[in-house]
Design a protein that fits this description.
Blueprint: H1 6-14, E1 19-20, E2 31-34, H2 42-55, E3 57-61, E4 64-71, E5 74-80, E6 86-93, H3 94-104
Amino acid sequence: MNDLSEQTLRDFIAKQDWIFAKTYANRAPHEYIVRGKLNGTDDEYMAIVDYIQKKGITMYFWNHMNKYIFVDGWQYWIMCGDDGNPLILNRCDLERYKLSIEWKGI
């Protein structure tokens, strides 16, 4: 999966059991999946990581720079562990996130 297609990306996204992140429910509502506990192979997951790193847009969340992609009204990004390994794939519904920011007065 070196040259990941957008359809392959969508298929991977669709087959996941996304977990709502309760910790940031009020200020940054999002969902996530954890590497090693996903529906699919680690090679598929790493192809998504590679896709985000190569085709993602660099943006900041507070002081943290990250790469983001946008697919079908969702924003996706990777979080790495302390050792730099990509452990978590996050996503947020852009409409829900926008409402959260507006609610906080940002």
